[in-house]
Each structure stands twice: as C-alpha cells, then as structure tokens.
Amino acid sequence: MDKLAIYLRLSLEDAQAIADGFDKDESNSISSQRVLLHAYIRGNEELRGKEVSEFCDDGYSGTSMERPGMQRLLKEVKDNKIGCVIVKDLSRFSRDYIELGTYMNQIFPFMGVRFIAVNDRYDSRDHAGSTTPIDTAFQTLLYDLYSKDISVKVRTSVENKCANGEYVFGQVPFGYEKSSEIKNTVVVNEKEAEIVRYIFALALDGNGSTQIARILNEKGIPTKTQIRHPERTGKSGRMQAWDNVSVRTVLNNRFYLGEMAYGKSKRKFVGSKGGIAVPMEDWKVIPDHHEPLISPEDYEKVCLFRKGANTARKGEKNPLVGKLFCGGCGYSMTYKPIRGKNKYRRFECRKHAVLQIPECCTCFSSDLLEETVLTMLNRELMVRGNAAKENQSLVSFQKSCISRLEKRTTECRGRKKQLQAEADVLYESYALGIIQAVSYRQQADRIKEQVALLSAEEEKHGKELEQFREEYHRTEEDMKQVIQYSHLEVLTQEVVDIFIKEIYVYKDKRVEIQWNFRENGKETE
Fold first, then answer.
1. CB atoms < 10 A from the CB of 265, how many?
2. Rounded to an integer, what distance in angstroms lies between the CA atom of residue 182 and that of residue 179?
3. For the domain bounded by 176-302, which CATH number is listed?
4. Which of these, 354, 126, 73, lies nearest to 239 by C-alpha position?
5. What are the sequence ranges of the domains in the chain?
6. CATH superfamily of 3-162
7. Residues 413-444 as b or e (16 or more Cβ within 10 Å = b)
8. Phi, psi of 86 (to 5 degrees)
9. Which of 451, 465, 441, 445 is nearest to 417 (CA)?
C-alpha cells in the first residue's frame, strides 16, 4: 500500500452550529479529528508505521467538492500516490450523498484506494466487489439532509444575532477591532482610527483619492495589510502602498457613521460559492450600532458614492485587460478607452500616479500594443507549427508506445484471469481430496506469487500508458490549436485566454509575453 491520507474538514456552518448549540459534537473540530485519526492509525497494525499525509479544509462546506484540500487529495489519488483515505466520518468527506456514493462505489474502487470512515465503522476493504451497504447509503442521505437543515438554522441564527446588534462577521473594517470583553461587539482601534480620520480630513481639504494616497505614502503611513498582516508584506514582490481604490474604500464606508448593514447578499443554494448581491436599498441597517469616526455632515461632503448612481463600467472591453502588467512596478495596467478628453485608446500604470516609480511604463498605446502582441503571437504559432511538423517521428513513437503498452496490459489481465481459473480448479481438487494440503498450499502460493508479479507489471504498464497518452493528447491538442488559429488577423478575447498567460510592458516600449503553452516560454520584442 502507498502512503495514507487523512482528510480533515470543518465548515463555518459546523463551527457556528456548535457555538449555537445545534450540533453538540465538539469533536468535529480540526484538532479533535486529527487526534482521532492518528489514534486509529496507531491502533491498527496494518496501518501503523505507514507514511501519512494530511489534507485539511477549515471553513469549507461539505456540500461541494471544490475545496483546496480536497482537490489536492484527489490529485494525489489520481497520480496513484495515495493507497488509503481515512476520515472521521462520511460527512467530513462529503455531505452530498450522490457525490459521496460515486467516490465510494466507483472512483475509489477503480483507483484501488481503500476508504475508511472511523466513526461510521466503514472500511471499503470489507465491501470489496459490492456496492455501499444500505445502512451506509441511508446515513449519507441523512448527512445531506442534515447539512441543509443546519444551513437554514445557522442562517436564521446569524440574521437574529445581526438584528439584535451583534457583529458576527469575520472581517472588521479598518479603524475597528472586535472587543475582547464583550462577545460580538466592535470597538475603536485608536491606531487605525487615527489614519481613517486623517484620510477624511485630507478629503475635506479638497484632496482627491489619488492625491490622498500619494500623501499617505510620502508620510510612510502603513496600509491595512501592513498593520494587520505584517508577515505578508513583501511576499508578492510588490511594494505595499496606498492607492486611490483603498482610499475610496474608506471614504465610501458608512460603517464609520456608526451604522452596521447586513443582508448584502444571499446564497443561491446550500454550499454554493459566493452569493447574489442584494440591492443597497434592501440592505438591513442598524444606526448607532457602534462609536462613529466621522460625522454625517463630513461624510456627505466627501463621500464619492451617491445612492442611485450607476457605478457600472460602460464602454468597450479590451481583450488584454487582466493579462497586462507594468514591467517597472509589477502592478496591472488600466485600460483607458476613447472618452471625453481621451483622444486615443491606451493602457496606463495604475500605481504610477501614487508611487511615482521612475521605471514605470506610464502609458502604452492600445492600438500599438495589440498589433505588437498579434505579430508576436502569429510568429510564435508559426514556429510551433513548423516544430510540430518536424516532430512527426515523436508522434509516431508515442503511438507505437501506447499500442505496445495497451497490448502488454491486456496480456497481463488475460494471464491473471487464467491463473485465477487455475486457482479455482486447484481449490476444487483440494476440497474433493484429490490433492493433499501441502501440495495445495505450495501450488496456491506459486499462483498467488505469479498474480502479484503480474499485478505489479500491470500497474507499471498502466502508469507508463497514462503518461504516454497524456503526452500524446497534449501534443495533439497543441497542434490543433496551432492549426486552428494560424494567420490571425484580429486579437480576440478567446485567443488571448488560450495562448497568453501574462504580458509585461516597459518604459522603453519593450513587450514581454509569457505563453500558455506547456513549455511556458517567454518572448520579448
């Protein structure tokens, strides 16, 4: 058996349910799950001493498989690096009974992975060759229904707490912190509040958001990230600095008036990601909820957002938006279409006005950039197309290897089937007394050994076959894309998304592209 995997999960709803008394089982906590599973492994002679990998999702619903820890686990299973998966109970793995049944009855058995749910006393090895027992299937259905029931109870509980004035959200606006004395209340953080008041004072003096950001940076005033998460500073390789967006976020926040708003979004369904935005006029607002940092009169003077104003961006969208970065500071470039005083389309470095970095590419013509990128892309496709034609021998080699490995895998399976038939005949002879026990044992061991060798050979061929198939399909897919998009005349969003990972532009009008091809090569012009 390859290494073991223990999977731990606790959703926000589980944690809230425990806190509110809907779920009395505090052993669902991550630390308790970890202790339980390691104790189970130590107590199992077959599992003890095996290499153990841990996969954890803290704060993720079990109704969806789109969890980072779960996705890493499934990738290792797919790569044949995991031989056994152990969870506290079936609901930790999934609370969608259909999804769970698919993995228990189809995927894990096909991959040869043993699955153990400790508290449910389920071990797939005890049910080899059969589907999930009816009591286990019923249990997974109950988990699914329980998840939906808990979701409704938790949502109602949160709404009731908000209506009673409790602050039950994770993030606290800049300038405040959660009280250490009274649960679910916020108090002023004087160090941060001083910065918030200073931002409003600068705005009242007539400074715009970009001017305010520049002043804050010149005075060395730390950002929210630098104050609350100093360990993150410098990790991205980009300078932490105030910008017009972060300043506007402060100036537009009515929380500084002492108001608390809730009901800003709603879930599509249980376990869905994100939510549907609720119109501002339908938000539920509690006035005088906490100590304000700004007066209503001053807020109205500087607030950049007006109720009823249409904040949706209008106009064309450039296909390079989101892919284009300034080579000087590393931040994304902002697209400026023809509008008002803008006489031509262009990209601008969104941080230059604030940071004033000399190396920034302050402006780049959109027409020139699109033409340059299109030329570079056509040249790249031509080079790769010629290389693909020259590599026909590689494709032929890959095909022959796939054919050879498929043949050997089939032969292994056929031989194993023959040996199993021999084992059945042998056992029948032993049962009828035709052969003695010693002879039966010797021949049975020989057959078992041959089956084990064939299984190992089949597994080896299977891994090689998967690798060759993957390489062949990638080569084939690359070739199809090269042929399909050869001789491009227009740069479209589809083309950019397929072939381009990132583009960096520099002050000297140099353009550097990171391609989405497998080799992830770069080209500069």
1. 11
2. 6
3. 3.90.1750.20
4. 354
5. 3-162, 176-302, 324-384+491-524, 389-484
6. Resolvase, N-terminal catalytic domain (3.40.50.1390)
7. eebbeebeebbeebeeebeeeebeeeebeebe
8. -125, 130
9. 451
* Amino acid (1-letter code) at residue 244: N
- Distance CA(221)–CA(247), nearest Å, equals 12
Q: pLDDT tens track of the chain, all 525 residues? A: 468 999 998 876 655 554 554 444 444 678 888 989 999 999 888 898 889 999 999 878 777 788 899 999 998 888 888 999 999 988 888 877 667 777 887 778 877 899 999 988 888 888 664 544 545 444 544 444 445 545 555 566 667 787 888 888 878 999 999 998 998 899 999 999 999 999 999 999 888 888 898 899 889 999 988 898 887 666 555 567 888 888 988 998 999 999 998 887 765 544 445 567 788 788 888 999 999 999 999 998 887 544 444 444 455 688 998 899 999 888 888 898 887 666 788 999 888 877 778 889 989 999 899 989 988 888 888 777 666 555 555 566 667 788 888 888 888 888 888 988 888 888 888 888 888 888 888 888 888 889 889 888 888 888 888 877 777 666 666 666 665 666 677 888 888 888 889 999 999 999 999 988 655 455 566
Tell me if the pTM is above 0.85.
Answer: no
